């Protein structure tokens, strides 16, 4: 099959969706398929990759008393978009987060291929869609109706997809490279000194709950001296987290800031306990899978997305981060019991195998084949709806 993977974001930046597409494309090629990636063109960032097609351009759009960078193809670039689709003649066009405006919608409106989409986000109320709700939401159902097959990474996104469609939704979780995250990775030696290392990796914003972990660690530190907290990541709450640590003079907290991808696996190898106390907004939990693949015991926030990963035995260490007493109790149980940490680590190694990329790609190919074999209906009404709404975007840009 000739397949296009459509990324709505700048593909040359790191991100969960970008990483998912890269791995999926690699695994599909291993199966003998031809894969190209389509993404918005980023200002001043050319790409020499032959498998990457950059379309449209970034535009600053005034909206709701602010300015938001938006990628869209207008004028000659819109003509180029049409020519690319006509030239490439993809069998499958696989959209990721198809509601993110606008390039994906433009491609979908012009597509004569079989259209498949994966919904990654835990809810549709992200800041971008909220900002453009008056333009995006009226055509949300038309976008879904133009899809021949729908994939969700867990049952969590299905709740909002169901607001617009009763089509069958295939559950295909995110994959993980088990070789990249394994027990063979070398830990960072400066942290191997007999202390129990608790690790947080992720954005430091309210949703991820880092501040609740710091508060729990402060309490736990009064009971256990041989523990260390390693915080990796930046975000809106980075300074407030640092301020809290300084205000209460909490010892043995390492604040590392932004973590490069290549360092992540070594940090997982360094820790004894991985903790992600996310409050909400998680559709699955890739960080949990990465830690599990490394053989580490995991403590996770009790949210719908994480519950799809930490099931059965794993659910013993789900926590409500705001409930500090319970949070501290579960951290202490693991920190004080090496044998239990090893048991939970072994559980994770076995559980994470179902998310291995070779297994995931087979499920995706099965969705592709079902969509190709099904009798495809041309939905003229929905194409017209999408195109009419896109005209509003073109007018908005022309008025700037």
The largest sheet, given as strand count, sense and whether it forms a barrel, is: 7 strands, parallel
Instruction: Estimate the helix proportion, in percent.
Output: 40-55%
Model regions low in confidence, pLDDT < 50 over at least 5 residues: none
| Principal-axes shape call | elongated
Number of strands: 15
Rg, Cα atoms, Å = 23 Å
Please state roughly what percent of the residues sit in beta strands, choosing from under 5%, 5-15%, 15-25%, 25-35%, 35-45% or over 45%: 15-25%
| Total separate domains | 2
For this structure, the CATH topology of the largest domain is: Rossmann fold
Structural class: alpha/beta
Quickly give the CATH architecture of the largest domain: 3-Layer(aba) Sandwich
The helix tally amounts to 16
Cα separation of the termini: 42 Å
> What's the pLDDT, averaged over the residues?
89
Q: What is the CATH class of the largest domain?
A: Alpha Beta
The neighbouring-strand order within the major sheet is 3-2-1-6-7-8-9
Q: CATH homologous superfamily name of the largest domain? A: Glycogen Phosphorylase B
Molecular structure report:
Helix 1 crosses helix 15 and helix 11 (286-293) crosses helix 14. This protein folds into 2 domains: 2-175 and 358-398, Glycogen Phosphorylase B (Rossmann fold, 3-Layer(aba) Sandwich); 189-355, Glycogen Phosphorylase B (Rossmann fold), CATH 3.40.50.2000. It has helices at residues 16-30, 76-88, 103-110, 127-131, 133-136, 140-145, 158-161, 210-223, 238-247, 261-270, 286-293, 304-307, 324-335, 338-351, 357-373, 380-398, and strands spanning 2-6, 34-40, 52-55, 57-63, 66-72, 92-96, 114-119, 149-152, 169-171, 196-201, 227-232, 253-257, 273-276, 297-301, 318-319. The chain has 400 residues and is of the alpha/beta class. The chain has 16 helices and 15 strands.
């Amino acid at each position: 099959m000739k397949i296009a993977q459509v990324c709505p974001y700048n593909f040359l930046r790191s991100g969960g969706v970008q990483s998912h597409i890269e791995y999926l494309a690699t695994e599909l090629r291993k199966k003998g398929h031809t894969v190209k990636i389509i993404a918005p063109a980023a200002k001043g960032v050319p790409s020499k990759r032959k498998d990457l097609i950059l379309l449209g351009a970034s535009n600053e759009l005034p909206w709701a008393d602010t300015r938001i960078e938006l990628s869209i193809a207008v004028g000659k670039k819109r003509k180029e978009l049409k020519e690319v689709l006509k030239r490439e003649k993809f069998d499958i066009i696989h959209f990721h987060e198809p509601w993110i405006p606008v390039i994906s919608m433009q491609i979908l409106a012009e597509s004569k291929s079989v259209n498949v989409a994966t919904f990654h986000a835990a809810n549709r109320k992200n800041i971008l869609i909220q900002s453009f709700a008056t333009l995006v939401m009226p055509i949300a159902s038309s976008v879904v109706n133009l899809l021949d097959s729908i994939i969700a990474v867990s049952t969590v996104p299905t709740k909002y997809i169901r607001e617009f469609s009763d089509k069958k939704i295939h559950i295909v979780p995110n994959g993980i490279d088990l070789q990249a995250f394994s027990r063979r990775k070398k830990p960072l030696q400066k942290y191997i000194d007999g202390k129990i290392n608790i690790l947080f990796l992720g954005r430091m914003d309210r949703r991820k709950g880092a501040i609740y972990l710091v508060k729990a660690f402060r309490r736990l530190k009064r009971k256990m001296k041989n523990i260390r907290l390693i915080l990796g990541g930046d975000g809106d709450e980075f300074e407030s987290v640092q301020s809290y640590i300084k205000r209460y003079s909490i010892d043995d907290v390492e604040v590392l800031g932004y973590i490069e991808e290549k360092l992540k696996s070594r940090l997982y190898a360094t820790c004894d306990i991985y903790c992600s106390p996310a409050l909400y907004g998680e559709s699955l939990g890739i960080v949990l899978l990465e830690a599990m693949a490394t053989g580490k015991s995991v403590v996770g926030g009790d949210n719908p997305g994480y519950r799809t990963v930490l099931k059965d035995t794993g659910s013993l260490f789900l926590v409500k981060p705001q409930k500090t007493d319970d949070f501290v109790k579960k951290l202490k149980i693991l920190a004080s019991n090496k044998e239990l940490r090893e048991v939970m680590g072994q559980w994770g190694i076995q559980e994470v195998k179902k998310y291995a990329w070779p297994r995931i790609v087979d499920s995706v190919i099965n969705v592709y084949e079902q969509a190709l074999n099904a009798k495809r209906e041309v939905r003229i009404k929905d194409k017209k709806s999408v195109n009419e709404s896109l005209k509003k975007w073109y007018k908005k840009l022309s008025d700037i």
